[in-house]
Amino acid sequence: MKRTFSLFLTLALVFVLTACGSAPGQGSTPAPEENTPASTTPETPPESQPEDTPSTDGETPTETDDSGKKILIAYFSATNNTEGIANHLNDILDADLYEIVPEQPYTSDDLNYNDSSSRSSQEMDDPSARPAISGSVDNMEQYDVIFLGYPIWWGEAPRIINTFLESYDLSGKTIAPFCTSASSPLGSSATMLQELTEDVTWLEGQRFSGGASVSDVQSWVDGLDLNG
Ligand SMILES: Cc1cc2nc3c(=O)[nH]c(=O)nc-3n(C[C@H](O)[C@H](O)[C@H](O)COP(=O)(O)O)c2cc1C
Questions:
Q1: CA nearest 76: which of 97, 47, 45, 46?
Q2: What is the domain partition of the chain in residue ranges?
Q3: What is the pTM assigned to this prediction?
Q4: Would you write out the chain's pLDDT as a tens digit for each of its 228 residues?
């Protein structure tokens, strides 16, 4: 665990340094958050390769918070950083947890943003891409609040989050977005997702580093109005 965390920190640092560096006379090397084509991306992958993908937790009983709201934590995580934050949220809220699992799992080659022909590069280059999700949320209508987590890919949410949002009638619900990234802020990723929904109340989102603590996550949750 400690080694994995150290590896993450090292790779994140390499990512930041690589993203910020540029060869003199060649202009800036675009960082992924600028959502530029992958052919111009930094040379070092930002993260460790995906570990085993945990399966969807469909068995957790429905929980409510003190306000009586039924809460779902839905997240996509290719290399488990966002999953860690989702688990912290689950400790805090005792909500239902749902992992957005791609029908076709992402391999390390798929995640190579230095390769313009990699799956992630191609999907992020195509705003209409909608990677298929394996399984679905049981009785989505029962939830009042959805915490929606994802990694930042090229400054945006991965397209599979679009697939998720377009798979359900979410009208009347409240969504609180959260993300992990090497360095990019939540930025416009959440506002772009908002455009995919109607009659949904979007709360102020939060970006976390992969190693964020439960208390970091608690601070964000404390500032949210879940009754909104
Ligand atoms: C295809 C791809 C694109 C990425 N783009 C960015 C980016 O634009 N900005 C950034 O800070 N990190 C970027 N990252 C790093 C991830 O956001 C970061 O490692 C995140 O914590 C991964 O979350 P996960 O382990 O839940 O998949 C990118 C990673 C991948 C694989």
A1: 97
A2: 71-222
A3: 0.79
A4: 444 444 444 444 444 434 433 333 333 333 454 444 333 333 334 443 333 333 344 444 455 555 689 999 999 999 999 999 999 999 999 799 999 999 999 999 999 999 999 999 999 999 999 999 999 999 999 999 999 999 999 999 999 999 999 999 999 999 999 999 999 999 999 999 999 999 999 999 999 999 999 999 999 999 998 876
Ligand 1 atom nearest residue 47's Cα: 19
Q: Does domain 71-222 have CATH number 3.40.50.360?
A: yes
Q: Is 206 in the pocket of ligand 1 (CB under 6 A)?
A: no
Provide the residue type at 31 as one letter. Answer: A
- Which ligand 1 atom lies nearest to the CA of residue 78? 27
Q: How far apart are CA 213 and CA 217, in angstroms?
A: 7
Which of 181, 192, 206, 208 for mutating ligand 1's site (highest number of atoms within 8 Å of CB)?
181
